[in-house]
Design goal:
Bound molecules: alpha-D-galactopyranose
Distance between the termini: 10 Å
CATH class of one domain: Alpha Beta
CATH architecture of one domain: 2-Layer Sandwich
Radius of gyration: 21 Å
Helix content: 40-55%
Order of helices and strands: HEEEEEHEHHHEEEHHHHHEEHEE
Length: 387
């Protein structure tokens, strides 16, 4: 991939003199969905697939962008002082959002860059290609401009760029795991405090299989922001009864007592998902530490049901993938992963059943939905690096 991204750089800018190469991973969340902006726990892993960049510093303040994933777009020219999310300029907004946020925080970025990206995360899959670009950008800026910034702060800058520059009110999970991931481990993160623990992932003769629904994710960002507002409304309704910062400050017992005070039924359902999902995530971490993969799988299945029935972010495509997966031999657990509304599922499948799983789920999905799903057997990788 290093060679390929340098080739892409050469295609865009004529030579590779003075270019550095960097990588940042994509991510998959094992459990703990839509809990991160609710002050709960998440349990994601970084992947060995991700985004590569070849980068060279310039003498002026121009930023030129090229992505080998969107060659038809060609080279897009912007400036490090651009302050606008220009939707006609696609992925470049993620990088510019990070430059803007770093400068806003007082970091000195005074020169432009020539950048070529190349990603092997499937586009729009929900495996966080945008957070991968954000963290990658933060990381190469740190190296090239010698910025005194930790990987954890790069994650926070990426989230701020996404929230304030792009306009998606995402939580911290994606940027955090991409910046902080550890090979072979899942990261148990308390999003209220940013305390985290690495837990080795030993699936005892099984693999992580990702199925990408290939559904076009129309209006996903606005539906995502809506879910967040519904949870905040539930917290506001409860504030007269109990002072909490986030809905996941409540355990399931407290929540069940207080839920009649949440006025709107829809907000009660959203809050119920977040509170129960948070507790499932805590149990899942213990299950993995205890080597109880079967229980871990059951919690994944429950997570999906709750995302389907209470949070309502699955849809026919993800439900078909997961409900078909549940019926296959050797499946320990299966659920949607990421924001939902399309995107991917993650399943734990016994080694010798992986081929038949991919064939059967693929066939039934295509017959039901009318187009194909893509499957990836993934490995858990580490955080960003220079290559
Ligand atoms: C997206 C967001 C994350 C998180 C998930 C849902 O991936 O970027 O912050 O909220 O959805 O768990």
């Amino acid at each position: 991939m290093k060679q390929q991204v340098l080739e892409a750089f050469k295609t865009a800018y004529g030579d590779t003199d003075g270019a550095w190469v960097f990588f940042a991973p994509g991510r998959v969340n094992l459990i703990g969905e839509h809990t991160d902006y609710n002050g709960g726990h998440v349990f994601p892993c970084a992947l060995t697939i991700g985004t590569y960049a070849a980068v060279r510093k310039r003498e002026d303040t121009k930023c030129r962008f090229y992505s080998a994933n969107f060659p038809e777009t060609g080279v897009v020219e912007r400036d490090i002082n651009d302050t606008e999310n220009d939707e006609t300029k696609g992925f470049t907004n993620y990088s510019l959002g990070v430059i803007y946020t770093l400068k806003f925080r007082g970091y000195n970025i005074d020169k432009g860059l020539d950048i070529a990206y190349l990603g092997n995360i499937p586009n729009s899959s929900g495996l966080s290609s945008s957070a991968s670009v954000e963290v990658l950008t933060g990381y190469f800026l740190k190296v090239l401009f010698d910025l005194d910034i930790s990987n954890q702060d790069i994650a926070l800058v990426g989230q701020e760029a996404e929230n304030d520059f792009i306009g998606v009110s995402c939580g911290i999970m994606d940027q955090f795991i991409i910046a902080m991931g550890k090979k072979g481990h899942a990261t148990f993160l308390d999003t209220a405090t940013l305390d985290f623990k690495y837990v080795p992932v030993d699936l005892k003769g099984a693999k992580l299989v990702i199925a990408c629904s290939n559904k076009k994710r129309g209006l996903a960002d606005s539906k995502y922001n809506m879910r967040r507002m519904e949870c905040e409304e539930a917290v506001a309704d409860l504030s007269h009864i109990k002072q909490i910062n986030h809905i996941c400050d409540l355990n399931t017992f407290e929540f069940d007592q207080l839920k009649p005070y949440i006025k709107r039924e829809v907000c009660r359902k959203r809050a119920a998902h977040a509170v129960y999902e948070n507790q499932r995530t805590i149990k899942a971490k213990a299950a993995l530490e205890n080597g109880d993969i079967e229980y871990f799988g059951k919690l994944m299945n429950e997570s999906h049901r709750s995302l389907r029935d209470d949070y309502e972010v699955t849809g026919k495509e993800l439900d078909t993938l997961v409900e078909t997966a549940w019926k296959q031999e050797g499946v320990i657990g299966s659920r949607m992963t990421g924001a939902g509304f399309g995107g991917c599922t993650v399943s734990i499948v016994k080694d010798d059943c992986v081929d038949s799983f991919i064939e059967m789920v693929g066939r039934i999905y295509e017959a039901t939905i009318g187009y194909k799903a893509d499957f990836y057997v993934v490995e858990i990788g580490g955080g960003p690096t220079e290559l």
